[in-house]
Automatic annotation (TrEMBL), chain A:
GO CC terms in record: cytoplasm; prefoldin complex
Stored SUPFAM superfamilies: Prefoldin
Protein name listed in UniProt: Probable prefoldin subunit 5
Record organism: Drosophila rhopaloa
Family to which the UniProt record says this protein belongs: Belongs to the prefoldin subunit alpha family.
Claim: Chaperone is one of the keywords in the record: yes
GO MF assignments: unfolded protein binding
Keywords: Chaperone
CDD domains: Prefoldin_5
Pfam families per UniProt: Prefoldin
GO biological process: protein folding; RNA polymerase I assembly; RNA polymerase II core complex assembly; RNA polymerase III assembly
UniProtKB/TrEMBL annotation, chain B:
Family: Belongs to the prefoldin subunit beta family.
Coiled-coil intervals, chain numbering: 90-117
Xref: InterPro entries: PFD_beta-like (IPR002777), Prefoldin (IPR009053)
Family matches, as Pfam families: Prefoldin_2
PANTHER family for the chain: PREFOLDIN SUBUNIT 6 (PTHR21431:SF0)
Entry protein name: Probable prefoldin subunit 6
Amino acid sequence: MAATPSAPGKTEMIDLTKLNPEQLMQIKQELEQEMTKIQDSLSTLHGCKAKYAGSKEALETFQSNWENRQILVPLTSSMYVPGRVKDLNNFVIDIGTGYYIEKDLDGSKDYFKRRVDYVQEQIEKIEIWILQKTRFLNSVIGVLELKQAAAAKMLQAQQQSQPAATQSS
Amino acid sequence: MDKNSAALYKKMQTEVESYQNLQKSCVKMVKQRAMLESQLNENKCVLDELNLLGPDNKVYKLFGPVLVKQELEDSRQNVGKRIEYISKELKSSSDTLENMEKDMLKHREAVGKYQQQWQVAAAMK
């Protein structure tokens, strides 16, 4: 049996070489499905992070001498009405589930910073997970290929020696 | 003999059907649980945020298109209650899911048994 695992030895490796190709294929497919799902949620998380970071950046541009400054308030994405900044130190933030809180400039910045950090933390967790899954998937593929090669060789050898031989799996 | 195997086949078919039905509701349940989990997470985040607020921070709740001012303490309690409720729902849905899986296993075993009997009956013909 020529099945020395190419990936770093894990407890799963011992089982892998004992599984038959059908089972390995199934594992591979399941892993691949899982990976697509994880990738999806990862990109969602990146989107969330960008949104929070964008809000924070908008707050960073606010300056203390902006009192009474004229701004254009968007009514839709393509229509604006003129307005004036009346209160520089109060922002209302959507914190989820329909709750909104009022915070001053520093508090709001702090809120978005914490959110960005939180999302970043989740992203890192998922990335580690993806790495592990990829490694596992690669070792499954490696063993599968070895098995298939071995099976093909055996079939060839059988066909050459005695055409009517019964196949031993 | 033919009658017998036909009856067996019918039994098997009903088992397969109930198995498939269970599988469908199982998928639904899993989706529901994922939704509950995300709601629970969101509510926890909100509660964390509310707990960080001082008495001079104002809290609003969105009702339709309007923001209505809320008392901080009330909001905390409301979100806390909601977390409790969602946790309960989550637990019950996990329990149902577990039971469903057990039932599915039973049906699968029954299908296997009938299949065997049917094959035996067919072979004896």
